[in-house]
Amino acid sequence: MEAVVDRRAGRMSGAEFRAFQDTRPDYERWELVAGVAMMMTPPTIAHQRIAGNLERLLNDCLEHHVPSMVATQRPGLDLASGDYRPEPDVGVIDADYAPDQHYVEKAYLLAEVVSSTDHVGVPGSTDRWIDVKRNLYRSHRHCEAVLIIEQDRMEVGIDLRTPDGWTSSVASGAGAEIVIPEFGFRCFVSDLYEGTPLAPRPTAQRRP
After folding, report:
1. What pTM did the predictor assign?
2. DSSP string over 23-49
3. Could you report the per-residue pLDDT of 77-114, keeping only the tens digit for each?
């Protein structure tokens, strides 16, 4: 299934997109892609499970190592570029957010669980949305780590900022480790997929 493009509004600025987004129901997930408002397809259960696992694992570490930060799902990210307003699946943000806050201008870790709409082409480009998001996240000056998580196989792309620039690696297979020293974070790849069809709970049984 492809993303739905709202062509009625035409090209939008970041501010115009936020105003448009505020009129839409909460269950709709919109992103601004090269100035075009696109509604993404609903995530799969596995997709949501992976995002939930990552959020929980990150918060367990942040509570002890960086209590000034918190991990949350789907933070609206206001980037410097007015043409893009992505909504990461998981982000690490400042813990002192306001009660009614929807969007953030700073994020320290950004993660995407790759879905079908991430493969759509960006308007005016031959690049996929997932690749553009990865580059946007890496260019965000506050971001220290980017994770690109596949949902159909146990594989995680890991980008880490270092004093000499970004380093990239891939953790593949259940026993591979993901280590992000900046947040005191360490887990096995299989931990992200716990409870999904790739790593079902041993006691999980379908009810008749």
Report:
1. 0.89
2. TS-TT--EEEETTEEEEPPPPPHHHHH
3. 998 777 899 999 999 999 999 998 989 999 999 999 99
